[in-house]
Amino acid sequence: MDRAVTLAPNDISVRVPRAAALLPYAKGLRSFQSRRGRSIDRHRHRRFRVRGRCQRAVVEPMKEHGQGELLGALADGWLTLGETAKANTYLDRMSSELPATAYAKNAAARRADPVAKVPLTCLGCH
Question: Does the pTM exceed 0.85?
């Protein structure tokens, strides 16, 4: 994945999957190498923020799955970094922009309890 980023550093279709793949890796790594895990979390989260900025430039809105996964990843990233207030912005968007979906339901649960074992991503793709 690093090679793909080297070959296409500004290609969002390379950057976002790489950031998504780093999520479970960083979570596992934090238990025994917390500094390295947090570094990966920050890097991964920057990629999703870049994707969010690119998405705002697109006139046609994303479909439910894409929007839910992006907002969920941003919220999860902020929660992982201990930034609950910033995460709540994305959790609130999940609830308001994706009503009556698994994304909204899980966002509400995490809004109520930021450390709940409720996933914010991979809802419906696995």
Answer: no
